[in-house]
Amino acid sequence: QECIFAPYFPSDDPRKFAIVHKVFGASNISKMLQELPIHQRAEAVNSLVYEANARVRDPVYGCVGAISYLQSQVSQLQMQLAVAQAEILCIQMQQDSATVTDSLPTHVDQDDKFMLLSENNNCYGVLPQYLNFPSSSSSSSNVFQDYEPLKSETFWT
């Protein structure tokens, strides 16, 4: 009778089996693999290896910690994207407004032109409030200065 582990844990990579064995135990792995159809076993082993590596790196949260970290990274990037898109919109509005103001009749006072521009283009004071950030007098691009830089780490070995 052939060993159930042989097709999925090659002898040239003993670490792969060792880590899965350490975390889940050989009998548990054997039971899991026997319950699966043969065509699904390779993917199951890949998943077990990933989960075992994650559990060794983070004994408390395991792969849930990795998933949570990646979800928070996606949220941060979505927030940064929203701020960048809003800034682009503000710049476009400023350019459009400047074009309109430049085409005003010459009898309009320069102070009135400035008021028109500042009333219509004060995006940076409104932007953080619009995006539910605490308002500040500084540019909205400073919103992320308190965030930790994103870590680059892989859980696949």
From TrEMBL:
Query: Which InterPro entries is this protein grouped with?
Result: LOB
Known Pfam families for this protein? LOB
Top-level division of the source organism's lineage? Eukaryota
Quote the PANTHER family the UniProt record gives.
LATERAL ORGAN BOUNDARIES (LOB) DOMAIN PROTEIN, LOB DOMAIN-CONTAINING PROTEIN 4-RELATED
Annotated LOB domain ranges read 1-88
Q: Which family does it belong to?
A: Belongs to the LOB domain-containing protein family.
Q: Which residues form a coiled coil?
A: none
**What's the protein called, per UniProt?**
LOB domain-containing protein 12-like
